[in-house]
Amino acid sequence: MNLIRNNNKEIVRSDGGSGKLPYGSSMWDKVCLAYFSKSDIYPKKMYGDVLWVGMGDAYGPRNQSENVKTTTIIEKDDDIIQRFNIPEKNWNIIEGCAYSHDFKDQKFDFIILDIWAHLIYANELKSLKEKYTKHLKKEGILLHIKTLKIIN
């Protein structure tokens, strides 16, 4: 695993997270359903403006409630965007780095941090939670994958 330092000088992974895992829609949808459920992430219950930090195979955005008004996705890997974007959905896809992209004053009802494959460093998760909490609306909810191994 390659490690780099992010903007906060913390060591983070540079391996692309889940973007480098093999995808097969039926197999991967079952995996996503399981780890979303274990993490209390229920796309069918979402509403308003939603930000997905990481695209994966777009399981979350594909399975959102009809009450979602806007869907924004930030994804670093153009190959993932090309393979899993559904133009008819009119998602706002940002090809960029979740660690450094400036969302300016944008606010969301739900923000889902889902950019890692198997593990995350505690400081990395903490800094991302702090960064994205600033972009929540007043009653907004920040969610992250809870099945990851967290390394101190």
Give a brief description.
The chain has 152 residues and is α/β, with parallel strands linked by helices. It has helices spanning 25-38, 59-62, 78-84, 122-133; strands at residues 3-5, 11-13, 48-53, 68-75, 92-95, 108-113, 119-121, 136-144, 149-151.
Protein traits:
alpha/beta; single chain; 152 residues; Rossmann fold
Classified by CATH, the class is Alpha Beta
CATH architecture: 3-Layer(aba) Sandwich
Q: What is the residue-averaged pLDDT?
A: 84
Strand order of the largest sheet: 5-4-3-6-8
Number of strands: 9
Derived from helix and strand composition plus strand pairing, the structural class reads alpha/beta
CATH superfamily: Vaccinia Virus protein VP39
Pattern of helices and strands: EEHEHEHEEEHEE
Strand fraction band? 25-35%
Global Rg: 14 Å
Low-pLDDT runs: 16-21
**Separation of the first and last Cα atoms:** 17 Å
Task: Give the number of domains.
Answer: 1
